[in-house]
């Protein structure tokens, strides 16, 4: 059974503006209870030592979790806004792509909690993040 408000396909999900576009984040898969995307590890996302910047990992996590939260609600009635995010950085990555998967821990009427696991291309854990979203009424 799907958690999404309506049936979505990857073609429905676009990142045309802002940080996600600048960092090269793209959605790669939508499943019944998860949203997956990837981000390149390159000069846009490196820190000074030539490995993935922790802030870039957090940007990927928040992009996936926020977008997933938005897909759960009726967007004509509600907005989902990030309230808190944390991340534990487990291993460095110097090149290639990292893949993030957002899954809900809690989907409530006024808040969501999402876990985002980020792995490298060998499926080794790079970062684990938890995102809390506030669900508010859309402006009328």
UniProtKB/TrEMBL annotation:
Annotated keywords: Hydrolase
Pfam families: 4HBT (PF03061)
InterPro entries cross-referenced by the UniProt entry: HotDog_dom_sf, PAAI_dom, Thioestr_dom
SUPFAM superfamilies, A to Z: Thioesterase/thiol ester dehydrase-isomerase (SSF54637)
Domain (Thioesterase) ranges: 49-127
PANTHER family according to UniProt: 1,4-DIHYDROXY-2-NAPHTHOYL-COA THIOESTERASE 1 (PTHR43240:SF5)
Family indicated by similarity: Belongs to the thioesterase PaaI family.
Record-given protein name: Hotdog fold thioesterase
Organism, scientific name: Steroidobacter gossypii
Highest classification ranks of the organism: Bacteria, Pseudomonadati, Pseudomonadota, Gammaproteobacteria, Steroidobacterales
